[in-house]
Amino acid sequence: MYYLTVLVTVSADSLVELERACTILEREGGGRGFQLIDAAYLQQEGLLSVAPIGINKLRYPMEVFGSFLANMFPFVSSQFSHRRGPLVGFDLVSKAPMFYDAWHKDLSNANMFVSGVSGSGKSYTVKMIVAHSILHDIQTAIVDWEGEYADLARSMGGIVVTIDYNSTNLMNPCEIEEEDYIDEHTGEKKKRVDINEKIDEMVNFTKYAASLTGTEQLKAAEIALIDRLWKQIYRDEFGFTEDANSLYETRRQMVGDKLQMRTRRKQPQFSDFYKLVVEEAENDTRFIDLRDRLKRITAGESLGLFDCQSKVSLSEAPIIVFDLSKLHENSDLRKLGQYVALEYIIESFIKKNPSQKKRVIVDEAQKALENREGTPAGEYAAVFLDNAFTRIRKRGGSACAASQQFSIFASNKYGASIIRNSDTKLLLKQNELDGPMLKELFGLADHELQRLYDAQQGEVRWDVNGEIVYSYYKATPWEHKLFNTRHVQAEEGA
Ligand SMILES: Nc1ncnc2c1ncn2[C@@H]1O[C@H](COP(=O)(O)OP(=O)(O)OP(=O)(O)O)[C@@H](O)[C@H]1O
Ligand SMILES: [Mg+2]
């Protein structure tokens, strides 16, 4: 038991304001179950009790339990526990700045899932995190469905890779890169090639690509063929092995008195695989359907943009944006582009520079799954994203998916796995229809749900490995212009 006296001092610049403040306090206090006793004729004792010495001269003690005392404080968290990392907002209650270190030792991964209804402020929040991360030497690659990160990247020294039929930037999803890694035992920097992982990914890519045409499930014989042919391509036809030298024509060597540099070998591309499927279909009619479904993915066809040798130069820029907005809105090509860009980022960005902190953002992550819920294409897109999150996590990176349709993820086994396996979850304003799923996946209490239904634009509920904080962010005018790009562009266009 404790003896408790709560003392409140009211101050104001004028008598009118003072009386108004006292009226509000009496009204609000009464409504919340507090009975206020004013310290009439006890001004001196009152003043000494609150300042400067803080010894209670007024008395009026209540007997309370410790838990009651704790409950009197309406704080969710007076201060978030991370001491380092970029500024990501201000605690909604205490107004304390909130710093967030995705690589904090108490977190098992740096992955992040951001969800909220359209217009709730997901992209705004993500842009703010990206911008503030630069000062902390965190490099970010962004799969940008809407083309809304380009201005932010350019104004912060980043680069924009536009994906389009007229662009000179070419991405080949089949390309495999040697990977830099640090040997756990010796601490030495080494190189390797993860062929098995790549083969698995290309099998999934092909299943996804085939599923974009028609709604039928692939048959077991077709899946077995896809698997066999990709192994054949990487291991036998191109002769790639786990040894990084296998990706080069020649070793770096002295020829006479000259140092001869290595040249990279040509990489497999989708039509190399397709050619083998065509040959198989000539001898076995079971594969004719697969052949026809995959034709769209080859050069010159409607989804053939990525049947090429890569030509993109990624510099050491702090932000690299892959802008997909030039591809037709909601087309299969843009969906395929989202997949290919993420695959490319894993090969060329995540597999390099192991000591650099790296983040990969997929905004509008639901797009590849949208309108395909419950179909094979939706399933394979979710598998790919889930795998991508694991591959990035495995290499110490931070993968971040932002989605306005929480339920698309939650209702899919792989989508739910992305949410569950992300140590950091950001919830912005939510739709009441998603209440039951939100409750199940995040273990939210009813009052927390209500709070999310009523959330203001830009208000964020952070769940960082179980630590809950509500935050907001008030940008400077210069920042607001950058985070609000879409709005500004729309105005300019009008
Ligand atoms: N913290 C904030 N401060 C001020 N304005 C904000 C804030 N967050 C969001 N907004 C305003 O809300 C608009 C919509 O935000 P944003 O584009 O981030 O929504 P979204 O959740 O990404 O929506 P969508 O799912 O449609 O992409 C912003 O352009 C901006 O004007
Ligand atoms: Mg957005």
Description:
This protein is 38% helix and 15% strand. With 494 residues, it is an alpha/beta fold. The chain has 3 domains: 2-71, no CATH class; 87-171 and 310-493, Rossmann fold; 192-308, no CATH class. An 11-stranded mixed beta sheet has the order 4-3-17-16-15-5-14-13-6-12-7. Strands 1-2 form a two-stranded antiparallel sheet. Mean pLDDT is 89; it is low at 487-494. Magnesium ion binds at residues 122-123, 363.
Brief rundown of the structure:
Helices cover 38% and strands 15% of the residues. The protein has 494 residues and is of the alpha/beta class. The chain has three domains: 2-71, no CATH class; 87-171 and 310-493, P-loop containing nucleotide triphosphate hydrolases (Rossmann fold), CATH 3.40.50; 192-308, no CATH class.
What is the fold's blueprint, element by element?
Elements: E1 2-4, H1 15-31, H2 43-50, E2 62-64, H3 66-71, E3 87-91, E4 97-99, E5 112-115, H4 122-133, E6 138-144, H5 150-155, E7 159-162, E8 179-182, E9 189-192, H6 195-211, H7 220-237, E10 253-255, E11 258-260, H8 270-283, H9 288-294, E12 319-323, H10 332-350, E13 357-362, H11 376-394, E14 398-403, H12 406-410, H13 413-420, E15 424-427, H14 435-442, H15 446-453, E16 460-464, E17 467-472, H16 477-483, H17 485-493
Parallel strand pairs: 5-14, 5-15, 6-12, 6-13, 7-12, 13-14
Antiparallel strand pairs: 1-2, 3-4, 3-17, 8-9, 10-11, 15-16, 16-17
Helix pairs in contact: 6-7, 6-11, 7-8, 8-9, 10-11, 11-13
Bound molecules: adenosine-5'-triphosphate and magnesium ion.
